[in-house]
Structures are given as structure tokens and as C-alpha cells.
Amino acid sequence: MDRAEVRELLDRVAAGEAGVDEALDDLVRGPTAGFADLGFARVDTHRALRTGDPEVVFAAGKTPEQTVALFRRLREASSRRPAFATRASAAVVDAVHAAFPGEAYTDDSGTCVAVGAPPAPRGLVRVVSAGTSDAAVAGEAAFTARLFGAEVERIEDVGVAGIHRLLAVHAELDAADCLIVVAGMEGALPSVVAGLVSVPVLAVPTSVGYGASFGGLAALLAMLNSCAPGVAVCNIDNGFGAGVFAARVARAARPGRSGAER
Fold it and tell me: How much is the pTM?
């Protein structure tokens, strides 16, 4: 349940189309207000009411059966936003597609899966990746930002080793409401981008690189030490966190924001 759904419910009560007890039952949904206890997990069914965005399933370590059960409960909680899982195994993805035939879809890497149409897009997020090896994290960020309500476009393989490739897309970079910049190795790309644009830059280090990259730690430290202002940094390989943040920035950048999106 999100704020728009609560407003509709209250409007129905005010118009005499629903009784107070009926409305209260809709809000409480049983004895555990705000969450559903599935035994193995307690699904936060009121997260969208508090934050504007529903809970998302982190599928790593969960069985296909558990993930499907979580999807069913999230779909029951709100039909306005898709149920969504990240870091899903092939078995989990297959199970979700089998449980929701014709409704489920995945990102390019096949590790994110969703059921239900994404919301109408507002604001533009561009996801910029340094190299092809960063595509999985960039894809997770792009998939997430779209499901969280932003329009998303990808700009790929514009790393600093061939900086002319980046300069060729300067106009596209500066026209976005928020940029997600994904890079491994030495992690220099976000600093370069932030020195070229007036747009908020969210840097995502990846674990791509040779031994001294320490699984993305070198890129993370480089981004945290950026000499260009306007750079915020996510954790290593955290495309999901970047996608959520960027979508909220992009939504807020456009006029006409509703209470459900605050």
C-alpha cells in the first residue's frame, strides 16, 4: 500500500462508499499492521506508504519457493508497483517466470527479475559505464531506476582510457536529471564526468580489475577521494542502491510530484 492508495481509500470513506471498519481492515490487513509474516520472512507491506517505494527482494540466499512467496505477497500489497528481486540465481528467475507466466521479465544480465508494469516514468537517469565488464552492475542500476519510476538511458564503454568517447556524449550527459557512473579498475570516470556536467553524479565502483584493485576497493577509495564536487558514492557493485537513489533524484527534479512519490 502506498500513499496514493491510502488517499483513494480515505476519499471512498469521505464519499460514503466505504465504511470506517472496512477502511481500517484495509489498512491493518490482519493482526500484524504494516507487515506480513510468512514464517521465513516478514514482508514490509507499508514501506511504500512511508517512503514512496515498496520493499524489494534481495534474492541471494533465498530459495526459488521463498522468492515466489515473497513476490505473491508483494503483489497483493500493491498492484501499482512491480514486485522486484535483485541478485537472483537462474533457478529463482525460472521459478518466478513459471509462477507468473507472461508477467515476469528480467534485466540483460538475468539476475534481476520483476513482475508487474513499471510506473509511468518521470525524470531522466542516464547510466554511464566505463567498460563492457561493468555492464552487469550498470544493468542492475538501470533496471532498478526504471522500476522506481524514472526514464532510463544507457551510455556504455566510455572509460577514461579513450576519453574522446566520453567527450562525444557530453550533451547527453548534461541533459540528464541524475547520472549513475559505473567504473572499476582505478575508478576515475566519475571524477571526470563530474568535472564536465552540472548534473548530480552518483558513482558506483565495481569489483572489476586486477589484483591491486582489491575487488573494487581501489575504485571505491578513488571515488570517495574525488577532486570534483557533486559526486556521491555507493558501495562496491551496488547497482540497486544507485538505481533507487538516482530515480528519487530524477522524480524530484520534475514538477507535479505527488504525495505518493515523496
Answer: 0.81
